[in-house]
Amino acid sequence: MPRSEPKSHGLMPMFINAIPAIGAVAGLFLAWEAYVLISGISPTTLPAPSRVVAQTVEHRAALATNTLATIRATVFGFATSLTAAFLFSVLIDFYGPLRRALFPVLIITQTLPLVAIAPLIVLWFGFGLTPKIMLVALVTFFPMLVALVEGYRSTSKDLEDLLVSMNAPRHKIFLMARLPSALPYFFAGLRISITYAVVAAIFAEYAGAVQGLGIYILNAKNNFRPDLVLAAVLVSSTLTLALFGAIVLIQRLSTPWTRLEGDKAK
Amino acid sequence: MSGVHLEMRGVRKRFDALNVLADVTLSVHPGEFVSVLGPSGTGKSTILKLLTGALKPDSGEILLNGKPLSESKRPFAFMPQRDALMPWRKIIDNATLGLEVQGVKRAKARQRVAPLFAEFGLEGFEQHYPAQLSGGMRQRAALMRTIAQDKAMLLLDEPFGALDALTRTQMQHWLQSMREKHGWTVLLITHDVREAVLLSDRIYLLTGRPARMKQEISVPLPRPRGSVPSPEASAIESDILKTLLQPKAHKA
Q: Which ipTM did the prediction report?
């Protein structure tokens, strides 16, 4: 199991740890704002952050509707991908040759450029939810499967020998040792995949959709409104960060022991 | 715990080109504490793996009360070298592991192991995770998990090898007193001469590669044995050291 360095708990230390990051982001936006002010560049080329925020507030109704569509595509797609990845990971764990049969095919799916695949899937499956779910799943399935399969393989030999000595059947060894051993890997995969998932959903919408941040961005661009493009970017970044945070929170709550490793006996 | 008589006769095991066990013959009688003593890397742990079912012997016989091991239910509770506590289970749930594997419901299993905590010096640590315990406590928790399975024979694989010298000595004496009280039948694997002499009724000396039984030594010393070895114990210890450190190969 990967050991993390001792972390401080509680909200206050977390805030103190975040100060450098907050400072860096604030500095970046200040510089941007100052450049726009001083250079007098047109807002149809580079809008100032303050204008982006103001436009986000002004267009909040349209943004909310489109964000909801993107959330739906992301969540359904990701849930489909997770379910499939878990089922296949179990099959592979119990039947090894399957891994050799599946992995080459799956690696090829990861080499397909999204720019080419997204319009094709929309062409085949229409403007509805299905093509978005498929694209999100296509992008996130393989990383999740690899995380799970590698996680199972990380199970300590000692634990397995111990369970064998207790006459545990294979499925009990899986449930009692291999599955919990994979949890840190699973969450690491989850954290990476969720960010891909949002990007993939927006990409699918960009290729053709009725609603969603992707199609909103496309329309804003075609109307020469970079401020609205950036407003949608602001919303999608916030959404991704929120989903990422939710996963970190779930991980902390569901694997409390991982935070103990590193700080030793009290 | 009911008595069980274990016999291994002419057991051999090789991994591909590596011949690990050349000829292992040993017996453990009911109520006996037997040690297999030898240098590291001689395949001592392989002997236990043959008993727990993690490995199968190439030839030779393993008999339980006169019947082949493969025909009987394994009456062993195994304690591996490193504690092998599950980091995601609290101590109480690590202790119930064997019972849960046997199909006992978790709540019931917890009730059964709860009284053991006081005796193992782990009272108040039921709800702690293994990472919150010291090395000695973790070893006691691992031994508790072994005992809780309620099997006829304990197989201990260098249980204190990972501990610092002082904690190890404490744990050895603690194990001695626990064993006096409960009369466990034990097969202990160790490379620690003093540990073997302190705890055992009989000791098998193993020589390395491939491992063979070199000598069988009785330790007819009264119990409890003190923390400072008696002159008799010291004599046995130095005999064993002389045998193990002999540069020449074994005699048949």
A: 0.87
